[in-house]
Design goal:
The protein has one domain. Helices cover 54% and strands 9% of the residues. Strands 1-2-4-3 form a 4-stranded antiparallel beta sheet. The longest helix has 27 residues. It is globular, with a radius of gyration of 18 Å. It starts with a strand and ends with a helix.
Length: 159
């Protein structure tokens, strides 16, 4: 996936446009189908549970659940109307996003990446590459790496 620099977004809301191969589209959609991977209880107000109240923690978890539902709704729209996002180009597809859609997609990809990492036991990257992974762990490791790949490609638009 490659950002087309000549089509930069601006305050007028022009879309960000990327070249994406058909294979990359399939991989991106398969990765997004893994959402959500993090439990809402993963997010903590404080590292020390004694310093935050139970009511405040419950409020945070409810807010995270609401955000998760919003993301799921947008993912449904993304999957059900992919022609809105993917248009035929000369050799590959053109993938277009507004700034708001880009921010949302980065959040979803980040949760998939972090969720995969948490489910793998939060290993250091080099440590994870040396592990003998089960099939399920290999899928999580792949999801973590692919999410990072797509995040980097999307963030190229801001460099």
């Amino acid at each position: 996936m490659k950002f087309i620099r000549s089509q930069k977004a601006d305050s007028a809301g022009r879309p960000l446009v990327f070249h994406i191969s058909q294979r990359e589209k399939v991989v991106l959609l398969a990765t997004l189908k893994l959402y959500p991977l993090l439990d809402v209880s993963y997010h903590q107000l404080s590292r020390d549970p004694k310093t935050s109240g139970q009511a405040e923690q419950q409020w945070l978890e409810e807010a995270m659940e609401q955000q998760r539902q919003d993301h799921k709704k947008k993912l449904g729209q993304f999957f059900n109307n992919d022609r809105r996002f993917f248009k035929d180009g000369k050799d590959d597809l053109l993938f277009t996003l507004t700034g708001e859609q880009m921010e949302w997609l980065l959040r979803v990809l980040n949760e998939i990446r972090v969720g995969s990492w948490v489910r793998l036991g939060q290993p250091e990257l080099e440590e994870a590459r040396k592990l003998s992974l089960t099939g399920a762990q290999a899928r999580l490791f792949t999801a973590m790496e692919l999410s990072g790949y797509f995040q980097a490609a999307l963030l190229e638009a801001f460099s």
